[in-house]
Amino acid sequence: MLTTNNQIQVQSLSPSLEFAASKIPTKIDVIGSPVTALPFEVQINMILEWAMSKISKVVCVANTHMLVEAYWHPDFSSVLKNADIVTPDGMPLVWMLRLMGAGTQNRVAGMDILLSLCRLAPLRDIHLFFLGSEIRILEKMRYKLERVFPNVKIAGMEPLPFRPLTFTENEAIIKKINDSGAGIVLVALGCPKQEYWMNQNKDKIQAVMIGLGGAFPVFAESHKRAPYWIRHLGGEWFYRLIQEPLRLFRRYSTTIPVFIWLALKQLLNLALVKGEQRENVR
């Protein structure tokens, strides 16, 4: 793990990968949505391999809120099922994957993805395009990127309006991204808007699109990230709630209890099925 003088931690790739980068991502159903059950380093390597070949792919960075949204909305559930990778951003998803067979699964969080790509993409001559957020945030990001990751290749930075894009505006964005030569597009429009947008533009944008939600303002230091020990214990949601109570209270109060209930029900059903299978073997 690399720590800069600004206390930014980056998970690095190990020399020998357990899985080949060409392997089809293994997915496990978590309350009705597929979550990719592969180590952090393997998922990063897959993204880099796709980006080098300019393959149009969609990566969703999932937490409990996203999976509950998918449970409630079948159209959004289809978006996650169509995604190429759905990373376990939140620790509750990591715990679920471990309980369902992926015993060594680690967290694949949006902020760690951003930091790793900024460090590793230049080594493969991959350019990054930053899409969404606000001009103020993007300017802060550019300044910090140039300071912390001086070798990062920025293909472009483009804020987007909060309203839906017109057809003409969307086509112009697609052309701008494709003309930039970017291999990776980091999208920060918020969930579920960014996931819908990536799904809509898959095969139009010749790059790997990754929905990073609130990672931009955290990197730009508009919001503070929880310390590692809090993240590891699954308490990042509470840390964020303290920083943004008005925006996050309703979201958390309506999604966390639902996720817990659905997860417990799924685990109970799994235990019952395994019990029946053992009885049948006897």
UniProtKB/TrEMBL annotation:
InterPro entries given in the database record: WecG_TagA_CpsF
Keyword Transferase carried by entry: yes
Alphabetically ordered keywords of this record: Glycosyltransferase, Transferase
Superkingdom of the organism of origin: Bacteria
One Gene Ontology term of the molecular function aspect: hexosyltransferase activity
One Pfam family this sequence matches: Glyco_tran_WecG
Entry keyword annotation includes Nucleus: no
Annotated protein name in UniProt: WecB/TagA/CpsF family glycosyltransferase
